[in-house]
C-alpha cells in the first residue's frame, strides 16, 4: 500500500461533513430560528440576545485562536486538540435538548450555541492544520476541495434528514408538544457530528515525540509573547503572508455574504416562497460542493492564486446581471453560478496558506487566518446595508457584496504566485 493511500483522506473529509451539522442545523437554519421565536419572548429581544452571544463568541475566537493553534503545534497535540474541541461541539449541541420553549431558557440556549461556535471555530483551526499531514504538494488542492465539498454535502444531507424526519409532519412521528421535535434535532446534530468525526479521530496518527523544550508547556502569557514575535517576524520577513491574511479576510467575507444574503434576496427581490428558497439553498450547496471538487483539481494544476482570482472574477460576472434582471429564472441561473465559484475560492484560500505556512506552525497560521477573518466580518453586511440605503431598494445590496469581492480580488492580485510547494516571500 502506498504512503498516499495510507493517509486518512476520506476520514479527514468526513469530519467536515459531520461538523457541517452544527453550522447548517444548529446555527443557521433550525435552532437559531427556534430561539428567536415567540416562545422565548419578543423577537426583537431574542434576536438581540442571540446577536450579543454570537458577538461575544466571535471576540473569544479572535483573541484566542492563534495562541490555541500555536500551543497545539508546539505540543504536537493537534489530534487531541481536535478531539477535545469536537467533543465540545457534540456536548453543546446535545445540551440544547434541555432548552425548553420558555423565556427563562433563552440565555441557556444562546450560551450553548455561542460556546458551540467557539468550539467549532477552534476545531476548524486544528482541522485545517492537519491538511499538510494528509496531502502532498501535488494533491493539496484536490484534497482541500474534497473536504470543502464534503462539508457542503454533509450539511445538505443533515438538513434533509431534519426536514423529513423531525419537522412537521416528520416521518419519525416525534410530538410537537413542548417543542420536543425541535429539541430532538439538537440530539441528532450531536450524533451526526460524533459519528462522522470518529473515523478521523480514531485513524489519525499521533504526533511525533517532541523535543524536551518543545514539549514544555508555555504559560499563556508566554504564548501571547511568542505570537507577538511571530507577527513581528512576519512583518519584517514575510510581508506577503500578511498581505494574504488581509486579502483572504476581505474576499472570504464577500464569499460569506453570497450565502448570507442569497435567501434574503431570493425572497425579497425575486418573489421566492419559503419552499422555493429552501430548494434553491439545497441546489446551491450541491453546486458549490461540485465546484469545490473541480476547483481543487485546478488548484493542483494552476496554483491557488489563479483559482482564487478566476473564482472572484466569475463571481463578479455572475452577480452583475442581477442588478438589471428581476426574473426568477435569472436568479436561478446567476445564483447557481455564484455558488459554483464560492467553493473553489474557499478551498484555494486554505491551500494557499498551507503552502506559505512555516512547517510545524500551521495551527498558529490558521489561528491568525481565523482571527483576521473575524476582524473584517462586518464588511459584507455593512456594504450590503449601505448600498440598499443609498439606492433605496434591496436588490442593490448585490452591489455592496460585489464591492467587497472586488476589493478582495485587487488585494489578491498583489500576492505572489506559488511554486510547487512554497511561496516566494520576497
How would you describe this protein?
This protein is mainly alpha-helical. The protein has 17 helices and no strands. It folds into two domains: 1-202, Up-down Bundle (Growth Hormone, Chain: A), CATH 1.20.1250.20; 233-426, Growth Hormone, Chain: A. It has helices at 3-6, 9-29, 31-35, 43-75, 78-95, 106-129, 140-165, 180-203, 212-215, 220-237, 239-270, 274-302, 304-319, 328-356, 362-375, 379-391, 397-413. The protein is globular and about 60 Å long.
What is the rounded distance between the termini?
40 Å
- What is the averaged pLDDT score? 86
The third-level CATH topology of the largest domain is: Growth Hormone, Chain: A
Q: Any idea what the CATH superfamily of the largest domain is called?
A: MFS general substrate transporter like domains
Work out the count of structural domains.
2
Structural class: mainly alpha
Strand content: under 5%
Low-confidence stretches: 1-5, 208-215, 420-426
Q: Classify the helix fraction into a percent range.
A: over 70%
Number of helices: 17
Main sheet record: none
State the total count of DSSP E strands. 0
Which class of the largest domain in CATH terms? Mainly Alpha
Along the chain, the helix and strand elements come as HHHHHHHHHHHHHHHHH
Q: Assign the CATH architecture of the largest domain.
A: Up-down Bundle
From the spread of the alpha carbons, the general shape counts as globular
Radius of gyration: 21 Å
Amino acid at each position: 500500500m502506498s504512503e498516499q493511500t495510507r493517509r486518512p483522506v476520506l476520514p479527514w473529509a468526513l469530519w467536515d461533513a459531520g461538523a457541517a451539522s452544527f453550522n447548517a442545523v444548529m446555527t443557521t437554519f433550525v435552532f437559531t430560528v427556534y430561539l428567536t421565536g415567540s416562545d422565548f419572548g419578543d423577537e426583537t429581544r431574542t434576536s438581540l440576545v442571540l446577536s450579543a452571544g454570537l458577538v461575544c463568541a466571535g471576540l473569544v475566537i479572535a483573541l484566542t485562536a492563534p495562541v490555541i493553534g500555536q500551543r497545539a503545534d508546539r505540543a504536537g497535540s493537534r489530534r487531541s486538540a481536535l478531539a477535545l474541541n469536537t467533543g465540545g461541539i457534540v456536548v453543546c449541541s446535545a445540551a440544547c435538548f434541555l432548552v425548553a420553549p420558555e423565556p427563562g431558557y433563552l440565555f441557556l440556549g444562546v450560551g450553548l450555541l455561542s460556546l458551540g461556535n467557539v468550539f467549532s471555530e477552534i476545531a476548524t483551526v486544528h482541522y485545517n492544520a492537519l491538511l499538510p499531514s494528509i496531502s502532498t504538494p501535488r494533491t493539496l488542492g484536490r484534497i482541500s476541495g474534497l473536504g470543502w465539498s464534503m462539508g457542503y454535502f454533509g450539511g445538505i444531507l443533515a438538513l434533509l434528514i431534519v426536514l423529513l424526519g423531525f419537522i412537521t409532519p416528520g416521518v419519525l412521528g416525534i410530538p410537537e408538544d413542548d417543542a420536543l421535535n425541535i429539541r430532538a434535532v439538537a440530539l441528532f446534530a450531536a450524533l451526526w457530528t460524533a459519528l462522522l468525526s470518529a473515523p478521523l479521530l480514531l485513524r489519525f496518527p499521533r504526533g511525533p515525540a517532541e523535543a524536551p523544550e518543545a514539549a514544555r508547556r508555555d504559560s499563556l502569557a508566554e504564548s501571547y509573547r511568542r505570537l507577538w514575535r511571530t507577527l513581528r517576524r512576519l512583518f519584517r520577513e514575510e510581508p506577503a503572508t500578511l498581505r494574504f491574511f488581509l486579502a483572504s479576510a476581505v474576499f472570504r467575507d464577500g464569499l460569506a455574504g453570497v450565502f448570507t444574503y442569497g435567501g434574503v434576496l431570493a425572497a425579497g427581490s425575486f418573489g421566492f416562497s419559503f419552499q422555493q428558497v429552501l430548494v434553491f439553498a439545497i441546489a446551491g450547496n450541491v453546486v458549490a460542493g461540485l465546484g469545490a471538487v473541480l476547483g481543487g483539481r485546478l488548484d493542483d494544476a494552476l496554483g491557488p492564486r489563479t483559482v482564487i482570482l478566476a473564482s472572484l472574477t466569475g463571481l463578479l460576472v455572475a452577480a452583475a446581471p442581477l442588478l438589471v434582471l428581476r426574473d426568477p429564472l435569472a436568479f436561478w441561473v446567476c445564483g447557481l453560478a455564484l455558488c459554483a465559484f464560492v467553493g473553489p475560492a474557499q478551498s484555494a484560500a486554505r491551500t494557499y496558506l498551507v503552502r506559505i505556512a512555516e512547517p510545524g506552525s500551521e495551527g498558529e497560521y490558521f489561528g491568525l487566518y481565523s482571527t483576521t477573518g473575524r476582524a473584517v466580518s462586518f464588511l459584507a453586511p455593512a456594504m450590503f446595508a449601505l448600498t440598499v440605503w443609498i439606492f433605496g431598494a434591496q436588490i442593490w445590496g448585490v452591489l455592496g457584496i460585489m464591492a467587497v469581492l472586488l476589493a478582495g480580488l485587487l488585494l489578491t492580485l498583489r500576492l505572489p504566485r506559488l511554486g510547487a510547494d512554497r511561496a516566494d516571500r520576497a
